[in-house]
Amino acid sequence: MRRYSPKDNVQKKPYYTDRYYVAPQVPKLDVESDEEFASDLAAIESKFTVSESYIQLDQLVVYIDIADNLGVLELLRDERAYTQLSELSAIDWLAKDGKFEIFYQLLSMSRRKRIRIKAYIDEAQPVKSVQSLWRSADWSEREMYDMFGIKLINHPFPKRILMPDDWEGFPLRKSYPLQGDEAASWYEVDKIFGKEHRETIGAELRDCAKVDRYDTERFSRLGFEVPKGADISGGEKRKKVQYQEDGGVFLIDRFDEEKTVIIRDKDR
Amino acid sequence: MQQTNRLRPFFENITFDRDDNELVLNFGPQHPSAHGQLRLMLHLQQEQVVKAHPDIGYLHRGIEKMAENMIYNEFMPTTDRTDYIAASSNNYGFALAVERLIDVKVPRRAKVIRMMLLEINRLISHLFWLATTALDIGAMTVFLYAFREREYLLDLIEDYCGARLTHSAIRIGGVPLDIPDSFLIDLKRFLDNMPQNLKDYEDLIDQNRIWKMRMENVGIIPTQMALSWGCTGPMLRASGVQWDIRKEEPYELYDEVEFDVPYSDKCDNYARYKIYMAEMRESTKILYQTIDMYKECVEKNETALMAHAPQYISAPKLDLMTQNYSLMQHFVLVTQGMRPPVGEVYAATESPKGELGYYINSQGDAYPYRLKMRAPSFWHTGVLTDLLPGSYIPDVVSIIGTTNIVFGEVDR
């Protein structure tokens, strides 16, 4: 029986993992261990629900309800001096529990603190845009939509940003293969030649490391060169190795493969 | 019928409709002054921009996707390809993020070498900026002079790691090599000439009429806009915020060296130009200090270049060749890759362009579960949306120039 390979996460996996290996954990500290973070958390908790919070590697991580995202971030920006939104993106957990995790990475310049606000959403659940708080979220959210297909509410220009507008699929999802899917391999063929020429052109070779031994259109085997497009299913003939064209360099141009002898006895 | 007079030119067969004379200009994607593949759709009222719409993605290679399919060490050369003007700073940003995740202590000598590389990269990047921006504005001489110095620095980097553009000069846990013998002498010789070189550039353009017209009071980014758009680095410092991650959240040995953080509240192109020049002086200052720090390391006989963490980092070459267990460990680390603990990290560094952050979510696998690069140029391109309206076509070129965007980093 063929081994089952999951379709919801097609990213590269380690080929070997020790059965008894338990991955260690980056320590999560209690929020009370840092006074400033504790007061930040208290400010959020006084108005919104917080499901989990801890300090990891000197940064506060707070899990909130996604419905409160705008409120929490506004509170942090206006009352807690987190004036900059460094980064905003998502993590794909669809294979695990059908959810996306969204994170907002904030920075307070006056207090030199960094905090990460996180929330879970369902696959098709739209998210309120925070573009009204930080203009930079405009582009980050577009990128998030482009890469994960997360829909946005109240976004001024919810369009793909890095991929072409008519691209199919969302590249950073775990279910999207690294080399691209079926639609990706036809994208440029359709664009340049038109759908009606798919037969003639053939799908784009998207695995740049793939070498097909029988493909004489794109590859040739050294020492076995044949005309382009020749059928070599019956095997190809070995070609004479020619290091130089006729009249080339002294000695080398007289090299004849058939007349050379390979000396195997090193003590001759 | 239109009447011709000296003040109102008469165009045959062309009538301008007062209400609808908006022209849409496609600036790029192939434009020499766009510094890469930037397509800028500009709505124009005569010469004035009324709406700007930057369109990016022409250099998108899915680097974040590639990261999810690579072991950590494998990803290092890929980081070179983001901000390819200053490749080592990307290497460093990634290395720092992973080091925080696996909690290793980098040896002091490696830290000093890293700081040298980072500052050399900053100089390379700033010189490149000066050269290309000056060229965009028409100052060919500055371009030639600045590239001459940049070439010298590229040679230095080449002496160190063999590459000029994509260095991969930094490893997770340290640096792969010690600096070559003549490196310090060469570096010092360069640094000694640097103040005079900088003065030469400034003599050429500081008071230059064309330069000032293109720079002064052009491309004004108010502080609020800079903060809102996530501008960092020289862009933010030129808008009146004195924020430098090297100073505020020191990494490596930046808390031991003395340097100033230049900033300006003028907010315009000229302020940014001045800040780039001042930062080059500060980098020179830091590099002088790193030379002394390196000599101290040599005196104290601190030879380690890579951190000692057998679980994550291969042993030094000598051990690999003599110790059986080190070789086994090395084999596992190369074929399967290190497995950092479960957790996540966001590490921000001050790259020449601004805040370069790596967010890594590790699930204890050899492959990062999610890696997000916070590339400063991404938002420095985004800010053009709000920055360009109101300015004129010739200013667009100088504004793009001073944002110092690199498309390897914008599109990733």
Task: Write a concise keyword list for the protein shown above.
heterodimer, A: 268 residues, alpha/beta, Beta Polymerase, domain 2, six-stranded mixed β-sheet, two-stranded parallel ribbon, 8 strands, B: 412 residues, mainly alpha, Cytochrome-c3 Hydrogenase, chain B, three-stranded antiparallel β-sheet, 17 helices, 49% helix
Helix content of chain B: 40-55%
| C-alpha end-to-end distance of chain B | 55 Å
- Under CATH at level 1, the class of the domain at 28-153 in chain A stands as Alpha Beta
CATH topology of chain B: Cytochrome-c3 Hydrogenase, chain B
Largest sheet strand order of chain A = 1-2-3-6-5-4
CATH class of chain B: Mainly Alpha
**Structural class estimated from helices and strands of chain B:** mainly alpha
Q: Work out the strand percent of chain A.
A: 15-25%
Number of strands of chain A: 8
Task: Report strand % of chain B.
Answer: 5-15%
**CATH architectural category of chain B:** Orthogonal Bundle
Whole-angstrom Rg of chain B: 24 Å
Question: What would you say the CATH architecture of the domain at 28-153 in chain A is?
Answer: 2-Layer Sandwich
> What gap, in angstroms, lies between the N and C termini of chain A?
55 Å
